[in-house]
Amino acid sequence: MSERRPVIFLMGPTASGKTDLAMALCEQLPVELISVDSALVYRGLDIGSAKPSKDELIKYPHRLIDIRDPSEPYSAADFVADAEREIADIHARGKIPLLVGGTMLYFKALLDGLADMPEADASVRAKIEEDAAAHGWSYVHQQLMEVDPEMAAEIHPNHSQRLSRALEVFLVGGKTMTQLRQAQELNKTAGLAKRFDIKQMVIVPRDRSLIHQRIETRFTKMLERGFVEEVRELFNRGDLHPDLPAIRAVGYRQVWEYIERKLSHDEMIERGIIATRQLAKRQLTWLKGWPVEPTPLYWLYTQDEQGRELLKKEIIDNALNFLQLTAI
């Protein structure tokens, strides 16, 4: 057994079954859950974020859920600070931290540590968003390509939040995000990978089309449960706007535009589903390039090689077998 204390990462694309598996593992292992999700941190974003129900959260408490008002931005640096604190507390209680979610940037920042990035500058961010409004995010992407082609190649032109931040870093500090990351690699000491015994699992079906089907079904059910009414309550507050990270969350942005009468009901549904599928694709892209050293990445498939969907017990047993083999 490793002398370093264990930390479990349970990752995967949206609608892959991460939350259900995490809660099931609570019945089998001495774990406590930490949410790794950039939408679940916000109070009032319940239905559209697929937040566990109140009853589920009572039975299976998740740390770092409902810790921010939607008017307050929440960054990867905020997450790392909060997650480090919660991990230390869980270890002090004699338990194992199980981090579950789909915000890959948060997992990566926690695993490797954060580069020393300049503080956010509201005026610079506003100018970038003005340019995007006037010329489109492809224009901003081209600006980033000219100063930081490596980062521009990594970020999709439609991923406005990451795109804006990458260009802002250069404009504020004079160094590109790629340069800052390279400096971080030379001096990497802060990340969890150096200090804990990380167990990494990815839950995903073998057939990616199954994710698409689940996303469509789930989005329809969200609407039936009152997703539009949830966003309307946020809209009616009067202090929120579409440029906030909370309102830019997948699904929320499309429903917000429907409430503003920029989209028809059918367009809102179509775009919401497409945006969620694009999110799943980005998550899988992150995972395909995920580092497997110094710890392996275990792909926990929810289908067998013939395409049969595994029973819940089979998935749980496979997860437990992996964790047992790696000597937790």
Describe the structure.
- The chain is of the alpha/beta class.
- The chain has two domains: 6-114 and 190-325, P-loop containing nucleotide triphosphate hydrolases (Rossmann fold, 3-Layer(aba) Sandwich); 122-186, Histone, subunit A.
- The chain is 53% helix and 10% strand.
- α6 crosses α8.
- 37% of the residues are buried.
Average pLDDT works out at 92
Roughly how many Å apart are the termini?
7 Å
List the total number of helices.
15
Helix and strand content put the structural class at alpha/beta
Topology:
Layout: E1 6-11, H1 18-26, E2 31-36, H2 54-59, E3 62-63, H3 76-92, E4 96-101, H4 104-112, H5 122-135, H6 137-147, H7 149-154, H8 160-173, H9 177-186, E5 197-204, H10 208-224, H11 227-237, H12 245-248, H13 252-259, H14 265-288, E6 297-301, H15 312-325
Parallel strand pairs: 1-4, 1-5, 2-3, 2-4, 5-6
Helix pairs in contact: 3-4, 5-6, 5-8, 6-8, 10-14, 11-13, 13-14
The gist of it:
The chain is 53% helix and 10% strand. The chain is α/β, with parallel strands linked by helices and 328 residues long.
Features:
328 residues; alpha/beta; Rossmann fold; Histone, subunit A; 2 domains; 6-stranded parallel β-sheet; globular
